Amino acid sequence: MQLSQLIKGLSEVTAQTPIDLAGDPQIDGADSLERAQRGQLCFLEKGHGLASLLPSSRASAILIPGRGDEALKLRQLASERGMAWVGLENPKLGFAEALELLYPRRTPAAGIHPSARVGSDSLVGEGTHLGANVSVGSHCVIGARCVLHPGVVLMDDVRIDEDCEVHANAVIHPGSRIGRRCVIHSAAVIGSEGFGFIPTENGWRRMPQIGVVILEEGVEVGCGSTVDRPCVGETRIGMGSKLDNLVHIGHGVQIGRHCAIAAQVGIAGGSQIGDHVILAGQVGVATRAVIEDRVTATSKSGLHGRVAAGQVVSGYPAIAHARWMRCVAAFSRLPDLLRAGRR
Fold first, then answer.
1. Model pLDDT for residues 94-113, shown as the tens digit of each residue
2. Any catalytic annotation for residue 185?
3. What's the rounded Cα separation, in Å, for the pair 151 and 52?
4. Residue 106: strand pairing partners
5. Which among 65, 161, 200, 217 could disulfide-bond with 143, CB atoms 3.0 to 4.6 Å apart, if both were Cys?
């Protein structure tokens, strides 16, 4: 499609948006700034540090920041290159929207594959697709316009609301509740038994796990991630929260709204995570920790006890990020200090 047509689908484009169509090129695809070719769109975020690559880029069009001195420089570089440009407040968001227009998703046709098995007392909503070898147990309800890819297993008494997508070989255990517009990726397990055992003189005694898991609207769970059900009560993932691949959510954990939890994070049972929390890769959260709203924990941090709202923390045990960076700088000087102390 022509660039002028494409940008009509971008939410930030208005009559006041700075634009140079530079001949209104045909846009057939998209790629990164350094790899994009003629006929493709790319983008550059504010402060990205890749502006030096722009003069050599072969892209036909670029989304750039809309305001500031850096934006003016990028406009000039793009124009000198003969590249069309659009100035946006959030070029990355614009690029995401453009990708959806350039590469529309293919939704499987509604219907139930002959190899799928659905419990006789379960309900499947209108417009829903059940792929090959899907297994749906008893007393299940699947909402309208859902897509269950091949090999998905829904055990008894699972409810999935409308417009959800469950990818191949994911397993959803009894009693789980999945809200609207959730996405569960391949090999994820929702509602498996929590790790509950009681030490006795004769070894570990299993604690029955009869609670449920609830995913609120718009939750996404990555490949191979697990969300455990508790002994009693519920494990809950709040609306709009996103879990990366290989994340483990322990029994009874409460996660707030719009959190982002990166790969290999482990959250121990009973922990409470507030709203808009960001946990970077391999963060560990201890049993019954309380992480308040808008906390950010950097990679490999260990969170214990209570972390106050709005903090950025690092290290193990986690402390304020700025203090942790000073500690790291001091660690590298310890051998010299030790040698000096021996003199």
1. 999 999 999 998 889 999 99
2. no
3. 47
4. none
5. 161
pLDDT band at 343 (very low <50, low <70, confident <90, very high): low
C-alpha 167/C-alpha 231 separation (Å) is: 27
Distance CA 41, CA 105 (A): 18
Query: Locate tokens 């000087």: which residue?
Result: 333
Q: Rg of the chain over CA atoms, in angstroms?
A: 25
Integer Cα distance of 50 and 29 in angstroms: 21
212-215/177-178 β-pairing: parallel
Question: Tokens 């006789």 appear where?
Answer: 120
Catalytic residue among 173, 248, 251, 276: 251
Residue with the bigger pLDDT between 255 and 105: it is 255
- Pair 181, 146: CB distance under 8 Å: no
Does the predicted model carry a pTM greater than 0.85? yes
Alpha-helical regions (H) of 82-125: 91-102
CA separation for the pair 11, 9 (Å, rounded): 6
Torsion angles phi and psi, residue 117, rounded to 5: -125, 125
Q: Per-residue pLDDT tens for 165-220?
A: 999 999 999 999 999 999 999 999 999 999 999 999 999 999 999 999 999 999 99
Position with higher pLDDT, 23 vs 342: 23
